[in-house]
Amino acid sequence: MHDYELLQQYLEGVRDFSGANLQAINLQGANLVNIILTGANLAGAQLPSAYLASAVLCQANLTETELSRAFLQRADLTSAKLTQGTLNEADLTKADLRGALLVRARLKSAKLGGANLNGVNLREADLQDINLCGATLLGINLRGANLQRANLSWANLSGARLSGANLKDAILTGINLRGAYLNGVNLVGVSLAGVNLSEAKLNGVNLTDADLTATNLSGAILRRTTLVNTQLQGADLSGADCRSARLVNPNLRRAIYTQDTLFPEGFDPAKYGAWFEP
To answer: Per DSSP, what are the bridge partners of residue 221?
Structure first.
């Protein structure tokens, strides 16, 4: 189908284009609110600045599609294929992206506040300056993703895969990282005060000068983790595995540990102000 055919039918009131072959179509700046493109082939399509509010794009093929500055508020993108797609500065506020494939996609400065990204694959995606404030990201794959300066405030990343991700200057206020995989992430000087990191995997993470005040680290795995001058006052270390962690001058004042907490051989947590909880 050509672009003029789709636009003409849309003007005539047609909204359902499910399964249509729209490969490489050019719909730049088009107003297509409420359009239904379930399972449509839009690979390589040009949709910059398109108005796609509440559009249905579930299971659509959007591989290498250009969607920069597109308006996709409340759009349904469940199980859509967006591998290597470009969505820089796109507005995906409250969009549903559950199960979508966005490997190596570009979403610089995109807005995803309140969006549902459960089970989304964003491996190696460029997410610099992205706004994910309050987004639901359960089980999301962000391995090797660039999240520099991303706003992740109050986002739910329970069980997320973040190993090797770049979180430099990211805003992590109120983030939920319960059971998340953060192996090998550089978190030097990062503030994770009050964050839920229970059962998280933090193997090889650098937390030098980081602020983990009142952070929940119960059951967390911190093997080979660097904790130099780390603020851990009031933290919950119940059952945490810190056996091979590098603990140098940590602030453990009022931190809690239990008989199940594992520290490096010879390390005395009480010396640094920690409290034993039977």
So the answer is: 201, 241
Beta bridge partners of 41: 21, 61
d(CA 22, CA 112): 26
The two tokens of residue 151 are: 């706003």
pLDDT, one tens digit for every residue, the chain (278 residues): 899 999 999 999 999 999 999 999 999 999 999 999 999 999 999 999 999 999 999 999 999 999 999 999 999 999 999 999 999 999 999 999 999 999 999 999 999 988 999 999 999 999 999 999 888 888 899 999 999 999 999 999 999 999 999 999 999 999 999 999 999 999 999 999 999 999 999 999 999 999 999 999 999 999 999 999 999 999 999 999 999 999 999 999 999 999 999 999 999 999 999 999 98
> Helix (H, G, I), strand (E, B), or coil: what is residue 211?
strand
DSSP, residue by residue, 134-201? T-B-TT-B-TT-B-TT-B-TT-B-TT-B-TT-B-TT-B-TT-B-TT-B-TT-B-TT-B-TT-B-TT-B
